[in-house]
Amino acid sequence: MPEYISRFQPVDKLSPAEKQRIVTLYLQYYDAANHDQVLHDLECKREVLLLESENAIVGFTSLQVFNYRWRNQPIQVVYSGDTVVERKHWGQQTLAFRWIQRMTEIKQEEPEKPLYWFVIVKGHRTFKYLPAFGKSFYPHWSIDCSNLKPLADYIATDLFGEHYNPATGVVEYEHSRGHLKPDIAEPSEEELQKPSVRFFMEKNPNYRIGHELVCLCELEQSNMKAFTRRLATKKQNYELV
Asked: Which residues partner with 47 through β-bridges?
């Protein structure tokens, strides 16, 4: 089994070589995107989580943190960017574990503020992170989380304006700004047996042309799966580079 190193890096501290590697990884798995677009999206984020193996970047995800006032209460929102891992490294958990730990660190910075995870989902593999981490989230196939819809609509409208359709809960670009290549976009027969995968495809039937499902999950210990909660509360020895 390969050994992995994960580290969060402020986007403005990335080297040119690191940025180029991120762009190369993204374009390896997504169509309808180009170098400048990927770089622009990256530079709109605050931090990037790099996954390394044998001194090479083999995966990444990025995030931005927003402060909103919602129903007379200040809240924090972590907005996840695209997540890409080289196919031969699919199955590793290092990236996901470190992401959970970083969310805990962000929560601890302002513990009095509710913290929400906002993500727009382009494929079924990313959607599966939600039920892996949280007990409930919006939208969900079997739990009524409609109380989160107004906030999800508010954030999505703020970030994507007229491209967001609150009736479908999907960011519907007229022209794709990046969608999975056909050879990895389709779920396998085994994956289709999972309710989360079928639900994603029902809620976002046009994901193949770049539509993105808006999802929202409160990052609160009581809403975490038991394993996620244990990982989140484990003493950390990480620092942001």
From this structure: 10, 63
